[in-house]
Amino acid sequence: xxxxxxxxxxxxxxxxxxxxxxxxxxxxxxxxxxxxxxxxxxxxxxxxxxxxxxxxxxxxxxxxxxxxxxxxxxxxxxxxxxxxxxxxxxxxxxxxxxxxxxxxxxxxxxxxxxxxxxxxxxxxxxxxxxxxxxxxxxxxxxxxxxxxxxxxxxxxxxxxxxxxxxxxxxxxxxxxxxxxxxxxxxxxxxxx
Length: 192
Known about the structure:
Blueprint: H1 2-22, H2 36-39, H3 80-89, H4 98-111, H5 113-116, H6 125-128, H7 142-146, H8 149-158, H9 172-186
Helix pairs in contact: 3-8, 4-9, 8-9
């Protein structure tokens, strides 16, 4: 019995010794690293200096005249001339199905309703709460009722006046679906 107590006491003392030795009150020593290659990257970090390249930069620019996958360059700017040109030249490649319009409503709720309002009247939460001083455009105005889907697509993509461009935030198909929702749901119930 005393032998078991001695063994337990020795084990307890060893455990306390290991725990005490592993603690560093100054937190300057990380202790032993069993797998240092997992803690310290062998690859260059994004903004590190790289001696291999003449300019010393590690992060490289993409090759000239290349575009990311699924990214088509948008050639229209946010000027009034390009807005009219885009409205005349662009064509919605999607069919106005119930599913596309429903998805457009979802995207509108996410990206547009805070400014333009749920009804599209320009009285979204950001304006009515006083957080945004300039009232967003009403999508139910006579000008917007006459505008084609391509005009709405262009303004979402490139922005116009105080509206910032959302082309980098919303996929092209979703921009077309939002335009489809505005024309077929929001504006369909409006009487001139």
